[in-house]
Amino acid sequence: MEWASVGAFRGVSEGGVTRFAIAKREPLRLELEAFRDAITGQPNRAVSLEEGLQTLRVIEAALSSAQSGEAVGLTEQGADPRPSLVPHGLLR
């Protein structure tokens, strides 16, 4: 069963941009399936908070590198675990 109100959304095209319709599944069904998988011992496909945070660190390093033109290394955990979540460099 598709989430009809969102599943039908196609977006707005501008210029030469092509947007593809991606099936959007109903969120509560996804939660139920994740719960079922957990209790039946199937692997968890969800992204963990730590994985999401590491992704933000990589993105911020890429933005910083693009802005400065220099290579930016990724530090070990504990350096600054808070991603800015704002346009790069505005609050740092």
Describe the protein in words.
This protein starts with a helix and ends in a 24-residue tail after the last helix. The chain is mostly helical. The chain contains 3 helices and no strands.
In short:
This protein has 92 residues and is mainly alpha-helical. It contains three helices and no strands. It is flat.
List descriptors.
single chain; 40% helix; 2 domains; 92 residues; 3 helices
Task: List strands and helices in order, with pairings.
Elements: H1 4-7, H2 27-39, H3 49-68
- Distance from N terminus to C terminus (CA atoms, Å) equals 45 Å
Number of helices: 3
Shape: flat
How much beta, percentage-wise?
Answer: under 5%
Radius of gyration: 19 Å
Most strands sheet: none
- Structural domains: how many: 2
Strand count: 0
Q: Low-confidence parts lasting 5 or more residues at pLDDT below 50?
A: none
What structural class results from the helix and strand content?
Answer: mainly alpha
